[in-house]
Amino acid sequence: MSFPNDETGNVLQEMQQAGIELNEMHDVVFFQLFEQKAQAEQLVAHLQAVAPDMVVKLHPDETPNVWDVDCTVRMVPSYEGIVAQEAEFEQLAAKFNGYNDGWGIEA
C-alpha cells in the first residue's frame, strides 16, 4: 500500500512498516487541545450528546494550562478516512476554541 507524501501518509507508512495491519479495525485516537478547561468540557459534553459510543477522555496536557480531549474512533485507518475525520474534529474543536492536534493508533 502506498500513501501520499505528507504527515498523515508518512505516519501510515511507518505503521505499515512496523507490521500494523491497516486494513483492519483499530482504535484511532484524535487529539484536541484547549487553553481553557471549560472549553474542553464543552466539547466533551457535545460529543457525549451526539456520539455517545465514542470514547472521550479529558485530561491536563504536559504543557501547563493546556487541556487535552482524546477522542477514540473505531475505524479502518485509511488515508482518506483519517484526513476526513481530522477535518471534522478540526471544525468541531474550533467551535469550542480548540484545535485538532493529530492522531494515533492505540497499539
Automatic annotation (TrEMBL):
Transmembrane segments: none annotated. InterPro entries: RraB-like_sf (IPR036701), RraB_dom (IPR009671). Residues 5-104 form the Regulator of ribonuclease activity B domain. SUPFAM superfamilies: Hypothetical protein VC0424. It comes from the Bacteria. This is Ribonuclease E inhibitor RraB.
